[in-house]
Structures are given as C-alpha cells and as structure tokens.
Amino acid sequence: MKCSLILTAIMICLNSISISAQLTLKQAAENKNKYIGTILNINFFNGENGTNETAYRTIANKEFNAFVAENNFKSGFLLRGNNQTTSNDLLNLTIADINTSNLNKLMDWGTANNSIVRGHVLIWHSGLPTWFEAIASNWNDAEIRQFSAKYIELVMSYCRDYPGGNVDEWDVINEIISDNNPANYRQTYSNNGQNVDVWFKNVAISAGGQGYQSFIDFCFTTAKAIDPIPKLYYNDYNIEVYNRNQNSKNGFLRNMVKGMVERGIPIDGVGLQGHFVSGTMSQTQVDKVSLTMDYIIGLKEGMQSLITELDLRICGNESNLSTQAQEYERILEMALSKKNSPGLVFWGFTDKYSWIPQFFDGCDDALLFNRNFSEKPSYAGVLNGINKVTTPTAQSPFNNSPFIINNNDTTVIPFTEFDNGGSGIAYFDDTKGQETNGTFRANENVDIAGSIVGFTEAGEWMEYTINVINAGVYDLTLNTTSEFAGKANFSINGNNISGTINTPNTGSFSTNYTNTTIPIPLEAGEQILRFTVEQGPINLQNISFNFNNTLAIVDLEPELEEQLELKLYPIPFKESFVITLETFKEAKLFKIFDLSGKMVYTQKHDGENIAEINPIGLQSGIYILSVDYKNEETGIFKILKN
Ligand code: G3I
C-alpha cells in the first residue's frame, strides 16, 4: 500500500514534469522567433452554420499564433451576390459590395490572440462567385485592371484602416502558373471537370501574350501603393521542389520572381503552399525544397520564403502515421531554420475539417489532430522539428576580414574563399556534391575541387565581402577555364556593375586558366560583391583587382539631372534606351564612348524631346554617353548595356 502510494506520487511528479516541459507548438516556435500558423474557419466556432466547436477554438488559440482564412477572404466570400451589389457594377465596386464582416472576424481573432494574420487571397483564378466569371470573361485588358485595382484597393484599405486589427501578409496573386510542361502563365483551369478560361486571360491576349507579367507587376505595385506595410507574397503549389529545368513549374516560378525583383516590383516573398503526399518527403526531397527556399531568399535583401499551406496527405497504404510524423519533423526543421522564413502555416490542424478527402479520392489524415481533436504522431513530429530548428549563420568574410581593395596593390580573391553563411546567404549552388572529395569547406555545397570552384552553372552565385579603400575604376580580372563559352556578371547590392562578361572556351576544363579583364567602377567602403554565372559550366580560380589609373568614374551630377529634367531608361538596357529632354530640345548629337575612351557610336538628335538611342553591335558593359547641346554644353552619363 505504502509502496504504491509512493509510486503514485512519483508518477504524478514525473507526469507534471513532462507536462511542464512540453511546449505548445507556438511556444516552441516563439523560442525560435518564428510563428506557427493554421487556417481558421471562423464559422466553426461562433455558432454559425449550427457548429460551435469549443475544442477547435481551444486548440487554435493554444497552439497557433498565425492565422489565415481557409475561404472567407476569397472573392467568392467577399463579393456580395451580383443581384445584391449596391452598384450592381463590378467595374465600379464600392465597399458596400464587399462583405467586410468576413474580414473583421479574422482580424478580430488575430488581435485577440496577438497573432499574425495572413490575407489569402487578392487575385486568383478560382474561389470566385459563380456569377463572376460570366461577366469578367468578357473584359478587355483595361477592364481587368480596373476591376483588379479597385478590388485590391477596397479590400486592402479596409483592412489597413480597420480599428480592430490588421493583415500582416497578403497573397497578392495565387496560382497564376499552369501545371503544363513547359509551364507558362495559366490560361485555363479545371472546374467540375470542365476546362474553363481564367477570368483575366485577356491580359495575355492584349499584349501579344506578354500581358500576364505586366498584370502581375501591376497588381503588386497597386497593392504596395494601397498599404506599404504588409508583406506582399506570390503564392503557388507544385513549385516547392527545386528543378533545374527552366520549363518546369519550379523553373518558371524562379524566373518569374527573379524578373520581378530585377524590375523593382515590390514583391516581399514567395509562399510555397506545401500540399505534399506522405511517403514522398524523404530527406533528399526536403533538401530540394530547401534549395528553392534558398534561391528565393537569395534574390534580394529581405526577400522572404514561407511554407503557407502545409499538409501531408496519406493515400491508401502508401504511408503511415509514423512516417508522416518523421516527414513533418524534417520539413519543420528545414523550413524554420531558414533566414527570412518568418514562420510556417498549416492548411488546417484537425482531420475533421480538411479539404483533402473532398479533393483527393482515397487520401486523408493529413493533419496534426484526429477527428476527436486528439494529437496524432504528426503533432510530436512537428514539435520535434521546431525544437531542432537552428539559427542560420550570419554572413561574414571567409577569413574574418574583408578583401581590401586599394589603388596600390593587386588584390587576389580565390573563388573558393566565398563568404561564410551557407546556402542562400553566401552562395547559391544547385548542383549537388563536390567535384573532388577534398576536406576544404567540405560541408558547403559549392563544388570545390582543390583550389578552384568547378562546373558552376547558370544561376549559381557566390559572394565576397570586400572593402574598397579608394573609389575608382578597377580592372577586374577573372581567371577561368571551360570547354564552353561562358557568361557571368558581378553585382553589388543587387546592382549589376559589370554587365555580362563573356568568358572564353579554353578548350579544357582543367588547364589553360585564362584571364578576362574588364573595367568596373567601385565605390569606397565595405560591400558585398556577388559573382553570378549566366551561362556555364565554368571552372573558376581567381578574381583580381588592379586600380585603373587612366579611367575615372563618370557619373551624372544629381543637380545636373534635375536642371536638365533629363531621364534615361531603361538602364541597364538591352538593345536601346530612351532619353527624354523635356526643356532642352537643343541637343544636337549623342555620342557613346567605351571605357578606354574610344567612340563606339554616334546618333544625331532629330529635335524631338524624346530620343531613342539604338547603339547596334555594342558588347555588354559600361559606357559613357555624351550629349552635345547646341549651346555648347555637354552632358556626360554612365550607361550600362546588359
Ligand atoms: O460554400 C459552399 C456551400 O454553400 C456549398 O453547399 C458547398 C457545396 O459543395 O460548397 C461550398 O463551397 C466550397 C468551399 O470550399 C467552402 O467549403 C467549395 O465548393 C469548395 O470548392 C471550396 O474549396 C476550397 C478551395 O480552396 C477552393 O476555394 C477549400 O475549402 C480550400 O481548402 C481550398 O484552399 C486552397 C487555397 O485557397 C489555395 N491553395 C490550395 C488550397 C487547397 O485547394
């Protein structure tokens, strides 16, 4: 009797230890400075539709600190029925046409629970009111943009000004890439087994097929202008697993977002939905998702990569609950260990309410709690994964101090001495493994073979912290070999400073390291130099810098630019650029010089206040444009050809 009492006491004691030691998901995530989110179906717990799920509400509140509406933010739920619209005119929407109570409920919940709120979604081909498509499919480009801009403005500004809460992240566009191979912008989708044109398809037709990209840019730019604070995301599925093939959906996504970043479109992140099939998420597969996240994060400073709709469906006997738990663990550990991956969102938490059985025959059990709201093995997997999360290493120079560049000495940077910080931070390398089994930096994915970096491919990059003591033009020499002609460039803070550099076919990958020298301008100060391969494979040995005594940086004085009201765009240019001369129509001649001072192009001014300069046959690189005015003044501008 006595013994069993003691035993009971010990058990109670052990029990309370383990209870107090086990963190909830959101507590564990908060310890790692991350959030953990879920869809929330408000209708389940406020008594609407005859449901009042106390357990649902309790778990949502206890376990999660980020929320997204499964459906309530979609236009099908926000746009009142056509016969009920106040304006009865989709092209002249007013806030009275928007069912704002759907927005209020999630924002209120977010505020009450001190949580992140995701806004899903502004522009989507699906999730529409049934009557919408019949009207919208007749719109031309201008009408599509008019509706979209108004809709974005009404919904976003309402949330921006809502006194009870706000939206932290918006999915501005969802699923605009097709599942075709080759992938492209989506023109149709399957609705109840029927192939239906998407309602904004005419933006593609109106601009010779190129209209989609400008429509996407337009939506993001519009959204940023309405509210500059929330993060703006592009969100999609089947883009998660890295695929080198540019025609794949992943390849298309990467090029699309890269283009947006290069055009300066205000995109803050990419949402990787993460609707995975359990049994397929091996470590190798998760590593490929990791690579996609690294690619996205590497696109610009602060760019975010987020898993937005995670679930792992079990289909037939293809997997089981314990395999699923391991898969969840490795996905959580990987995704939350990323820089600029602020959290992770699940597409639900209980199998009682999941989209899976309705959409995938024979699949179910995708989430963390069963139909009775009890934890499944997947819950422990997720918790373990969060607890294993590590903080990424901050970027730093390889030898702890930057490479010094001055006007006296030759600075040699071995390509192998790229910065510390790892994948997505100091480099991006999507070809697996090292060319030799060397031990030098063996845990980095960059392909180091002895003293060189080998077989670098298009899209791969490495960064080097440099400290420029003397601003000026430097001769930058690349030392490379390849059995192919290659292309590469250098950038600083996202600005391409070299244009495309052509590297030679040296006849062999292993011998005949050959120099390619180009002049590049460098500002003084510590900065991060990025080397990007545009066309490979190239084997790389050294970068060296020598001050160029004969060239100086020629830049337009800001005052002069203002005085002349003169604009050049686009710079860098591909084939031609435009120069506007609002008040100075008196220019008579445009001349272009290369950096050695040789004149490579001239064009007479025809007297209009906009001139298109079309310097045929110019190699990529930096040039000086000189504008001769009739009043004998000369304007000097630095231009960059890509
Ligand atoms: O509200 C109607 C109801 O009145 C009607 O009786 C019933 C009959 O089927 O349908 C109800 O609408 C359904 C709606 O969910 C709300 O339950 C739609 O048919 C159904 O198609 C819709 O499915 C949603 C789907 O998006 C399409 O919007 C799913 O719940 C939702 O989980 C799913 O979420 C998407 C993300 O937005 C984007 N990423 C993929 C993800 C999963 O498909």
Could you explain the architecture of this structure?
- The structure is a single chain.
- The protein is α/β, with parallel strands linked by helices and 642 residues long.
- The protein is built from 15 helices and 32 strands.
- It has an 8-stranded parallel beta barrel with strand order 1-2-3-4-7-8-10-11, surrounded by 6 helices.
- Strand 31 (621-629) and strand 32 form a beta hairpin.
- It starts with a helix and ends with a strand.
- Ligand G3I binds next to loops.
TL;DR?
With 642 residues, the chain is of the alpha/beta class. The protein has 15 helices and 32 strands. The longest helix is centred in the N-terminal third of the chain and has 21 residues, at 141-161.
